[in-house]
Amino acid sequence: MNPENFMRLALEEAKKGDAPYGAVIVKNNQVVALAHNTVKRDNDPSAHAEINVIRRLTAQLQNPSLEGYTIYTTGEPCPMCASACIWTGISEIVYGASVKDLVSVNQSQIHISCEEVIVKSFRKIKVTRGVLREECIKLFK
């Protein structure tokens, strides 16, 4: 599978959530976890797709480290989600719509890129932007 295939899975997962955010974690070209936004359902402001997928996988692994894993998200991770990626040691973040894109379609966002959060941290995380960007933006229109 390629990045577009993984992002398509994130797009499908996003359609199941309270808000159209979906996340997929991959290792060795295999999907190991999927999740969507459940903020309203769970009455939990931290229940973003990225947090949910990280919680699901680390619980399954019984290990807080996700070094060597890649996360695919329909929207650029907010500062909270980017920080969770840092704390777990995720190796790569791949996203579709940027924070700027999300603001342009009236999504509430903290206007700080995930790269700004990462650069101020103790980790090096590769960030790949804009995979299926237009399809991801369409989720929010």
What order do the SSEs take from the amino end to the carboxyl end, as H and E?
A: HEEHHEHEHHEH
Residue-averaged pLDDT: 96
Classify the secondary structure makeup into a structural class: alpha/beta
Question: Helix segment count?
Answer: 7
Residue runs with pLDDT of under 50 for 5 or more positions: none
Question: What composes the largest sheet?
Answer: 5 strands, mixed
The total strand number stands at 5
Strand content: 15-25%
State the shape: globular
Percent helix: 40-55%
Keywords:
141 residues, alpha/beta, five-stranded mixed β-sheet, 40% helix
Task: Give a brief outline of the structure.
This protein is of the alpha/beta class and 141 residues long. The chain contains seven helices and five strands; from the N terminus they run H-E-E-H-H-E-H-E-H-H-E-H.
Structure characterization notes:
This protein is an alpha/beta fold. Helix content is 40%, strand content 20%. It contains 7 helices and 5 strands. A 5-stranded mixed sheet has the order 2-1-3-4-5, sandwiched between helices. α4 links the parallel β3 (70-75) and β4. The longest helix is centred in the middle third of the chain and has 13 residues, at 49-61. The chain is globular and about 35 Å long. The model has no long low-confidence stretch (mean pLDDT 96).
